[in-house]
Design a protein that fits this description.
The chain has 218 residues and is an alpha+beta fold. It is built from five helices and five strands, in the order H-E-E-E-H-E-E-H-H-H. A hairpin with a 2-residue loop joins strand 1 and strand 2. The N and C termini lie far apart (98 Å).
Length: 218
């Protein structure tokens, strides 16, 4: 069907052109034949220019509507071109102007390097540190050879009780057993109700040392 026949048979009809896509340097145009908002037929064509693709798509849509097909040939570039161009109508009869919908190709952003942004977030917020058991040897207590030991002092080893020496020996045992500060503090709390060895009496400190020495090396 030629444009003249189309205007005679469909005086209220019109053609709508759409730019469908741009691929490999080819413009793909779709032409819709419509009347009263109803699409009667459509044609799709590709060419190296928008105008050429629109002409091809228009011819296909009209041929499909009229049931006749004009011969077409394929150029060396692979684009379908008509053997005979259909002239544009010069009649002042109002025809819906082709509408070209531009398709903007948005560039795909390149992925950022895997290690460019790396945020290491702690798995959990550590609790406030609790007082730890002080393992530093306490200042050596002044000794007076003529002063008798205090009442209630237990000396199970047969030697004079030395607070700083017991602290030092318990340090060695704690390291041998691989105890952490928290383990030592928990044991003191459960056994004596005190958080630090510095708060133990001489008897309790000596008892704690004997307990550590009785444990086997893990």
């Amino acid at each position: 069907m030629t444009p003249e026949i189309f205007r005679q048979q469909y005086p209220a009809g019109g053609l709508v052109s759409e730019l469908a896509a741009i691929e490999h340097g080819q413009y793909i145009v779709r032409v819709l034949v419509q009347q009263g908002g109803v699409t009667l037929s459509s044609g799709l064509a590709a060419a190296t220019s928008v105008e050429e693709a629109e002409d091809l798509a228009r011819a296909r849509a009209l041929n499909l509507l009229g049931g006749t097909v004009n011969p077409v040939v394929v150029s060396s570039a692979g684009a379908v071109v008509p053997k005979k161009q259909v002239p544009r109508p010069a009649s002042p009869t109002p025809v819906v102007a082709p509408v070209v919908k531009a398709v903007t190709q948005m560039p795909t952003p390149a992925p950022a390097p895997a290690n460019e942004f790396k945020f290491e977030m702690p798995l959990s917020v550590p609790p406030d540190p609790e007082p730890v058991i002080e393992y530093e040897p306490a200042p050596e207590m002044a000794k007076n050879a003529s002063t008798p030991p205090a009442t209630g002092t237990v000396d199970t080893s047969g030697e004079a009780l030395d607070f700083s020496d017991i602290i030092a020996r318990s340090d060695v045992e704690l390291k041998r057993l691989g105890w952490t500060s928290e383990q030592g503090r928990n044991y003191l709390l459960e056994t004596y109700g005190k958080r630090s060895r510095q708060l133990l009496s001489d008897e309790e400190l000596l008892e704690f040392l004997r307990y550590l020495e009785s444990q086997s090396t893990p």
